[in-house]
Amino acid sequence: MIEEENKNGLDTSTLTRESVTTAINEVQAEWHSLGNGIKTKARIEEKMQEKLANLVEAAKAGNWKQQLEEAIIQMITYNYSSNESLMWYGHLVTACEIKRDLNMPSPAGVRFMFNKYEMFINPLLFGLYTTEEQIAILKHEMLHIINLHIVRQKDRDHKKWNFGTDISINQLVKNIPVDGLQPEKFQFEKNLNAEQYYDLIPTNYESSPEYKKGQKGGGSSSNGEGEGSGNDVVDNEQKLKDLISSALSAAENGMIGDHSKWQESQGDAEAAKEITRQMTETATNKSRGMSPSECANAIQMLKMKEQINWKKELRKIVGNRKAFSKLTIKKNDRRFPDRKDLRGKTHDHVADILVILDVSGSMSDAEVMYGLNETRAIAEKAGAGVKVLQVDTVPKLVENFDPKSKSFTRRGFGGTYMYPAIEFAMEKKIRFDAIVFITDGYIESVWDGKIPRVPFIWLVTNDKTNLALNISSYPRMKSYTLKIDQK
């Protein structure tokens, strides 16, 4: 759905062709004084005057959406036969409510508002890019949405999180403006998730030459403060010049989206996930069932819901134990949100859970995937710290579970013996308050060794009666059926 946010137009009555030219020349002179220019700069400079003149004329006519609509049509129609994924992304764009922000210092930005996503366009800046780059910018914004980057930020540093998310998705976008952040620019490994790139970025990243590059002239699209939040009328050449300067400073810094909009979002994470799921389903249906392969994992995770009430289960395990908490300057005090001198609190997990995952040959990839989705729910919704121990006939490496990881390495396909994993955990003195087993049930029928005095929860795929071990003789064990959609 495309809507216009306000009635304020771009008042260009005071702008002459000469004042526009003067503004362009001053901006170009400032660029050249920076020394190391940007590759994008030369491409934009080439037809700067022509493009700005056309943008001014379009603004006078009130037709600010024209270039956006043409880019969407290209995505949905012209690229259908050769690239169905662009069609899919185009339908995602049409599911957003599109608004205008003339002061936003980048061509596009998104935010989540209760039951919808809003995408903001600054037509003055969006029109400076080629059609191919405009499509790349739109795809870039949709990748932020389907990967839930807005709600995944949590307490992380905003600017550093912006960099991490851009590095993770720009690898998937063709025709991204050439200075967009890429992993090779910082000697990072490819195909990591945003959290992993965030952790790789050094704490003093702002003093690093690579990150400092482009900060001259504002670069305000990445800091979320002040600029980019209004829709004032642009009525003089100085304001026009400032807008163009901000756009090019943002391009030099590799930021093509206005991430400051993320901090204006309202609504909880579950609502955002549900709306995103609905958007992806609609886009897939409208794209004749085709969805891009690079989004397969994200789409799969959006479709899957936890089958066990883990908050309830973990409450039984930990009782009234309070979560560990610490003061943080990143949150305001809940009781006194306007008191900037008071620190808020952040809570650590209340339990340590060991997940023992059956990766024997009888476990299908779908069963493993559903098991990992429940593991993700434990880590995210129950506030638990999770370690995963894979096992077939022998236990594998114990790994801390990252609920946002896009990848999982399966480490076994042999027979099935679950008890060696218990022995291994005790020998290595791994801390756990409960153990969750994920298996198809075709395991050994007898355990002769020592059993830890903690709760055991069995998730048996398809039918819990398939569990070969008779757990009725163990008072701390319970089982659930984990239903698998084999499609």
Describe the structure in your own words.
The structure is a single chain. By secondary structure, the protein is of the alpha/beta class. 38% of the residues lie in helices and 14% in strands. The chain is built from 17 helices and eleven strands. The chain has helices spanning 17-33, 39-46, 48-60, 66-78, 84-94, 123-126, 131-146, 149-152, 158-170, 194-200, 209-212, 237-252, 269-286, 296-303, 310-318, 365-381, 419-427, and strands at 97-100, 108-112, 117-121, 325-332, 343-347, 351-358, 384-391, 395-400, 434-439, 456-461, 477-482. The strands form three sheets. A six-stranded mixed β-sheet has the order 8-7-6-9-10-11, with helices on both faces. Helix 16 links the parallel strand 6 and strand 7 (384-391). The longest helix has 18 residues, at 269-286. The radius of gyration is 26 Å and the shape is elongated. The model is unreliable at 1-15, 30-40, 210-235 and 322-330 (pLDDT under 50).
Percent in strands? 5-15%
Distance between the termini: 32 Å
Structural class, judged by helices and strands? alpha/beta
Largest sheet: 6 strands, mixed
Unreliable residue stretches = 1-15, 30-40, 210-235, 322-330
How do the SSEs run, as a string of H and E? HHHHHEEEHHHHHHHHHHEEEHEEHEEE
* Average pLDDT rating: 74
Number of strand segments: 11
* Radius of gyration over C-alpha positions, nearest whole angstrom: 26 Å
Oligomer: single chain
Number of helices: 17
The percent of residues in helical segments reads 25-40%
Broad shape: elongated
Q: In what order do the strands lie side by side in the largest sheet?
A: 8-7-6-9-10-11
